[in-house]
Amino acid sequence: MRDPTLQAIAEKVERGERLTRDDGLTLFQSNDLLTIGRLGDLANRRRNGDRVFFAANQHLNPTNVCVLRNTCVFCSFARMPREEGAYTRSLDEVFAEADAARDNPTREFHIVGGLHPKLRLSYYLDMFRGLRQRHPGVHIKALTAVEVAHLARIEGMSVAEVLRAMREAGVTSLPGGGAEVFSPAARATIADKKLSGEAWLEVHREAHRLGIPSNCTMLYGHVETTADRVDHLLALRGLQDETGGFLTYIPLAYHPDHNELGEALGRTGTATSGFDDLKNIAVGRLLLDNVPHVKTHWPMVTPFISQVALTFGCDDLEGTVVFERVYHEAGAGTPMWLSYDQIVSLIRGAGKEPVERDSLYQPVRTFEDWVPGQARARPQGPAGPTFRLEPRRAAAARKRALPVLSSPVDGAE
Ligand code: V47
Fold this sequence. Notes:
Layout: H1 7-15, H2 21-29, H3 33-48, E1 51-54, E2 57-60, H4 91-98, H5 100-103, E3 108-111, H6 121-134, E4 139-142, H7 145-155, H8 159-169, E5 171-173, H9 184-190, H10 197-209, E6 214-220, H11 226-243, E7 246-253, H12 260-264, H13 274-287, E8 293-296, H14 298-309, E9 316-317, H15 340-349, E10 353-357, E11 363-366, H16 391-400
Parallel strand pairs: 1-9, 1-10, 2-3, 3-4, 4-5, 6-7, 7-8, 8-9
Antiparallel strand pairs: 10-11
Helix pairs in contact: 2-11, 3-13, 4-6, 6-8, 7-8, 7-10, 10-11, 13-14
The structure holds ligand V47.
């Protein structure tokens, strides 16, 4: 151990004791990344052993029109209704995009978008029902707490009523977006008019009360302080103590391109560092001792950092994705998607045991019999996404696409 201030924390982690706010501050302030990573790994292994979960998923973003376009200054995805690049998909267009799931081993639709001023709850409910009908085996993880609260407001309904309607239409869980960082000061700078931290927590509390599990996130690497990070994680831990409804925690790395905040901070082209990405994974794992899983989001931090994160406290890896818009609009230089085979290779390459899961973390498949280059979720299905990108996007995606990640076990099997 290089940093002696971590000694007492290491002893607590070894004894399985809960860490305090001061411990969280010490961890974030320390540069002894290997010790922090080792402790994160210990906490993760205790819960999850060598298993690493992933879902064969597909992201769908029905609209980028958002009433918060001018106030969420960190976001590059949102547009005003008449702004260039604004889009709102018809239900048929959403269903056509989702049809990629027919040829792919998809088990989860991940659906998030903007706060459209006119799209009603019925549009989303019809979408969920239609997806359910067309793809009965695919779970629907849909709408951030911010979108749920927005729909409740424009419909004059309670949050519970909206959530109940979503559940009846087929939603199985909520994604963790929209939390950003709860600190009122940081929020006033980056997301002034967005749902407050308390209100975000209240939507998740309500979802958990109704039996809808959810994910939680923290957006880091912008104007937040170390104390903001720790207080955010402790607020998530507090709600989890109460409800037990969070499935996974995902730290989200701020991307500064094509947004006002990146310009103002002079950060264009400079995303978070790999050092901070790994530290956020490990400290998240250590402070959130009651959340079962920690997910690394490879579209944001690169598949390479995500692979290393698997030994810094992560037991969950973002899935196949198919088409990612939110971070690629903000300058993410990662591929748009990874094939099923690449995901399995990446996990195996870290010496871990891949487990394909559904949205609720029920294991679907393990890979003892896996042969590199021949992973198939369904024996008859082709590997890799077949969804056709627009030609310009397709060229950009091809340029970015990584070669299949090599694994130390390649060739040995
Ligand atoms: O809330 C927006 C983030 C979130 C930027 O639950 C940005 O499995 C970085 O909900 N740089 C939406 N981040 C995405 C979301 C999500 C993502 C991954 C996994 C899960 C899950 C949910 O995207 C927003 C915001 O925090 N975001 N703009 C940006 N420039």
